[in-house]
Amino acid sequence: MVVLERVNIHPVIVIVRFLVMGKLFGFIGVLLAVPAAAVIITLIDQFTPSEKLI
């Protein structure tokens, strides 16, 4: 899948996001599932330290 390679998200996370967002928000949730997951993963990567502090 081209989308998964572009946003670098594990396929299981995408499937779970589709199911959860589809159940909560319907078709609009399915459309926004991958972009929302990409934003959340990017924010987590930005705000978690990548090296030990000490």
Figure out the total of helices: 3
Structural class, judged by helices and strands? Answer: mainly alpha
Gyration radius, rounded: 13 Å
**What profile does the largest beta sheet have?**
none
Principal-axis shape equals: elongated
| Head-to-tail CA distance between termini | 40 Å
Walk me through this protein's architecture.
The chain is mainly alpha-helical. The chain has three helices and no strands. It is elongated and about 45 Å long. The chain starts with a helix and ends in a 7-residue tail after the last helix. The model has no long low-confidence stretch (mean pLDDT 81).
Kindly summarize this structure in a few lines.
With 54 residues, the protein is mostly helical. 78% of the residues lie in helices and 0% in strands. It has helices at 2-7, 11-25, 27-47.
Any key phrases for this structure?
54 residues, 0% strand, mainly alpha, single chain, 3 helices
Fold topology:
Blueprint: H1 2-7, H2 11-25, H3 27-47
